Amino acid sequence: xxxxxxxxxxxxxxxxxxxxxxxxxxxxxxxxxxxxxxxxxxxxxxxxxxxxxxxxxxxxxxxxxxxxxxxxxxxxxxxxxxxxxxxxxxxxxxxxxxxxxxxxxxxxxxxxxxxxxxxxxxxxxxxxxxxxxxxxxxxxxxxxxxxxxxxxxxxxxxxxxxxxxxxxxxxxxxxxxxxxxxxxxxxxxxxxxxxxxxxxxxxxxxxxxxxxxxxxxxxxxxxxxxxxxxxxxxxxxxxxxxxxxxxxxxxxxxxxxxxxxxxxxxxxxxxxxxxxxxxxxxxxxxxxxxxxxxxxxxxxxxxxxxxxxxxxxxxxxxxxxxxxxxxxxxxxxxxxxxxxxxxxxx
Length: 346
Description:
Order of helices and strands: HHHHHHEEEEEHEEEEEEEHHEEEEE
Radius of gyration: 24 Å
Largest sheet: 9 strands, mixed
Distance between the termini: 60 Å
């Protein structure tokens, strides 16, 4: 009898699974999966901010996918459908949209990972109960001609009820090439107690500066920015220890290489020995705005040696290697097969 009941239960479960699959549903439709995905894997993109439902799943990713589709098509009218009312009401918004679309080159092939609906501000800054649900993230976009850095913020619940739905939709959209992104600095023009509209000054790695109109809508600092150059000589690499670490690295073009056997022979407690190896070799790439991350070629391999330390300066007494790892930089983080040669523990 017990065996018969087990068989009956198994049969019912099998039938349920079959019906579930037949109806086209999947577990991901029932239980939202918050993990990040590249652009090519995002389903059900929004075509208008009016479609945004704070009770649905993948709000941020679907907003990003819809926005990128309009940028890819060069569709100004479509892109404006994704922008919040507060942003559209700003002065010079039309001119900024034109500049962004006119300078964007190529057809989008894919992106680095785009964040799931994680880390959102669930309530307004002035309230512990009023819903806001603002999502902020950044990622890199690949086209068949360029690589772009994109910063996109959006809000799925209005946080300025008194003046209509000012904040629902994309609140900030910044697109730059990697050479402009590298070493970029921002000086905010916002002053406490001042106007809600002000000018932020952006200084790019090549010394070019640009004033950007900014407006506070609810808890969002709304703005559109585009600045284009050429991404040749720069590369987006997954060299961190979590999926979200997509760093811009400046390539050096070196042919120097390190053998794995030599890496394993280094006494990493002897800082002089570490300096002797790494400070005398030209790195394959250096990281964005820092000197403590370097990539070296691994001899007889397509993989790279990723070295992270406190500092690479010869005269720094606090120099200490944090970790050395072998990494396949051509793969997304989730597919990388990493080998740690050395991992420093405090």
